Amino acid sequence: MKWLNKHIVVISFIWWLTQGTVLLLNEIRVCLERNYLDHFFLTISICLIITSCLLLIRTNKIVLSLSILLLLYSIFTLFAMTLLFFMEAHGHIFFNICISFVIPMINIFLSILLMLNARKEIKD
């Protein structure tokens, strides 16, 4: 657990950067296939990439505020993916469960760990 607390910022940076990049690449794929660009998901993916890069700034107050923002995003994602799961899950149930529940729960877990670590360092 000490190793995780020590490297939580780097782990979170990689995790959120990966999610933002995958979301951006998916939006580009949809734009090229359907000639339709959804500005909402494009904005979210760019904000995730920027937020993950801002996590590398070692100022604890910035990391704390970003972790709260990422926690709110994670809760929204869990809610949206749960609705999507119940409306659209027809086949590949294991894949749908991973996408709909496991990844948002990892998001929440990482956000809380990041928030607790930044809060602890501010107190010290």
The count of helical stretches stands at 5
**Total count of domains:** 1
What is the CA-CA span between the terminal residues? 19 Å
Q: What is the typical, i.e. mean, pLDDT?
A: 87
Low-confidence stretches: none
Q: What's the total number of strands?
A: 0
Largest sheet: none
Q: Name the structural class.
A: mainly alpha
Strand content: under 5%
Instruction: Please estimate the helix content.
Output: over 70%
Principal-axes shape call: globular
One letter per element, helices H and strands E, the order comes to HHHHH
Rg is: 16 Å
Q: Can you put this structure into words, describing what you see?
A:
The chain has one domain (2-123). Helices cover 87% and strands 0% of the residues. It is built from 5 helices and no strands. The protein has helices spanning 2-6, 8-34, 39-54, 60-88, 93-123. Helix 2 (8-34) packs antiparallel against helix 3 (39-54), helix 2 (8-34) crosses helix 5 and helix 4 runs antiparallel to helix 5. The radius of gyration is 16 Å and the shape is globular. The model has no long low-confidence stretch (mean pLDDT 87).
